[in-house]
Write a structure and sequence with these properties.
alpha/beta; Rossmann fold; UDP-galactose 4-epimerase, domain 1; 2 domains; 6-stranded parallel β-sheet; 3-stranded parallel β-sheet
Length: 320
């Protein structure tokens, strides 16, 4: 059995991943690592929560030893938008935090480390349509730089030490639970919330911006599917492309208007437009499909219906 620590459990993905992992492996076997933010009631009620900072090796080691952790999932990261405002913080958290976790896993001879990457590893010289698994990695953000370095570092630990390190390149992730924090694709969540709350939204990228996206249930499925995959069948380790759908902001608006015809949108692109323009329109995830059977379940309209329903219920209850 696996004893799993999720570092960064208060974040958009981590908060939901912990709950899903607890359903798969049992609540007492999945530790939610929270740095400062108070854990949600769901996290507190379903399993152990501990204060964990990837930059604090002593505290990290104490939690690992206390729960006999043999799998670490490192969801702690400074994302693209926030990273551009504080590049040194992004480097510190994204790189030094990762090295701390990899070294601890090596020393403790752990079963596995999962280190998510991102489409931010790509840049303006990367092919933007159906971006290949193996291609040019020349990002223009510090977040992207740290994710490229993280992929390479994880692969190094696989080859040098035989440590099972895995990762996938998340596209933009959309969820109605925990709001994202400082990413370029945040508009894809905010637009749904504002469609319910205000019936209007001012978008920080333009109407024609197209990016790969994924609904949270598919994100959780992809993460756990990769964790469970047979190591011997993996042709890659820390850098699997995963896709689900791709669409423009205009496509989102039309999908929303099928439910809320009066929804209005305006566009005021900021510095994140250049970041979005440097990322792919779509990715080729055939390696993930072949190696570990990746298959998404949601398309744009299915996601839109589910998002608006869930957010609408929260709004009626006065929760947002």
């Amino acid at each position: 059995m696996k004893n799993i620590l999720v570092v960064g459990s208060a974040g958009q993905i981590g908060s939901e991943l912990v709950l899903d992992l607890r359903k798969h492996y049992g609540g007492d076997r999945v530790v939610a690592g929270i740095r400062k933010t108070k854990p949600s009631e769901k996290l507190l009620e379903t399993g152990p929560c501990e204060v964990v900072d990837a930059l604090d090796v002593k505290a990290l080691t104490e939690v690992v030893d206390k729960y006999k952790i043999d799998v670490i999932i490192n969801m702690a990261a400074i994302l693209s938008g926030t990273g551009e405002k504080n590049p040194m913080l992004a480097w510190d958290v994204n790189m030094n935090g990762l090295i701390n976790i990899l070294e601890l896993a090596r020393e403790r001879k752990m079963k596995q480390v999962l280190v998510p990457s991102s489409i931010a590893v790509f840049g303006p010289t990367t092919p933007i349509e159906n971006t290949p698994q193996e291609t040019i990695l020349k990002p223009t953000t510090i977040y992207g730089v740290t994710k490229v370095a993280g992929e390479l570092l994880g692969d190094y630990y696989v080859k040098k030490y035989g440590l099972d390190v895995r990762g996938l390149r998340y596209p933009g992730i959309i969820s109605h639970e925990t709001l994202p924090g400082g990413g370029t694709t945040d508009y894809a969540v905010a637009i749904y919330y504002e469609a319910i709350k205000q019936k209007k939204y001012t978008c920080f990228v333009n109407e024609g911006t197209r990016l790969p996206m994924m609904y949270m249930p598919d994100c959780l499925k992809a993460t756990i599917d990769l964790m469970e995959a047979d190591f011997d069948k993996l042709n890659y380790h820390c850098d699997y492309n995963v896709g689900a759908m791709d669409f423009t902001v205009g496509d989102m608006v039309e999908s929303i208007r099928k439910h809320i015809p009066e929804f209005e949108i305006s566009y005021e692109p900021d510095f994140r437009q250049a970041i979005a323009d440097s990322w792919p329109n779509s990715v080729d995830d055939s390696a993930a499909r072949k190696d570990w059977g990746w298959q998404p379940e949601y398309d744009l309209d299915a996601m839109t219906g589910d998002m608006l329903k869930a957010i609408g219920e929260k709004h009626k209850k006065g929760l947002i």
